[in-house]
Design goal:
single chain; alpha/beta; Rossmann fold; five-stranded parallel sheet; 5 helices; 39% helix; globular
Length: 155
């Protein structure tokens, strides 16, 4: 990254999922890569996440979930963000956690550009976010494209 304003990234844990180690590792890695990271902590409602994204004027929203409630909670988060004018056209949405292969297409339709699952490298996550930001700041199509293409799985 250059001397421009650092990316502002919100990392959130929707629902009752109390396991936050992965989210904290990602938040720290993004911070260490020069991004401003807002970590909301565990047990956040979709409305709390959306309000934090709006108030913090973030460029990126990353959701982490291990509880299996992604099919219910992620659409509610996206809806709450949309009600506040935060859309995948303006902000990068990505997710991480235990998400089955069959659920990924529906999440991508919601606007999540990438899904990082257990075993994904923090380097891959950082590179993905930086590539999105570079495309956005260059005014190109990258803001709506898929840097790296496929979902990152455990290896």
């Amino acid at each position: 990254m250059t001397t421009e304003t650092p990316l502002r990234v919100l990392i959130a844990k929707p629902g009752l999922d109390g396991h936050e180690r992965g989210a904290k590792v990602v938040a720290r890695a993004l911070r260490d890569a020069g991004m401003e990271v807002i970590y909301t902590g565990i047990r956040q409602t979709p409305e709390m996440i959306a309000e934090a994204a709006l108030q913090e004027d973030v460029d990126v929203v990353g959701l982490s979930i291990l509880s299996g409630a992604h099919a219910e909670l992620f659409p509610r988060v996206v809806e709450s963000l949309g009600e506040r004018g935060v859309t995948p056209d303006d902000v990068l949405f990505f997710a991480g956690g235990i998400i089955p292969d069959e659920d990924i297409p529906a999440l991508k339709e919601l606007g999540f550009r990438e899904i990082f699952r257990p075993g994904a490298s923090t380097r891959d996550i950082i590179a993905y976010v930086q590539a999105w930001a570079a495309g956005r700041s260059a005014g190109g199509e990258a803001a709506g494209s898929e840097p790296g293409g496929e979902s990152k799985n455990a290896s």
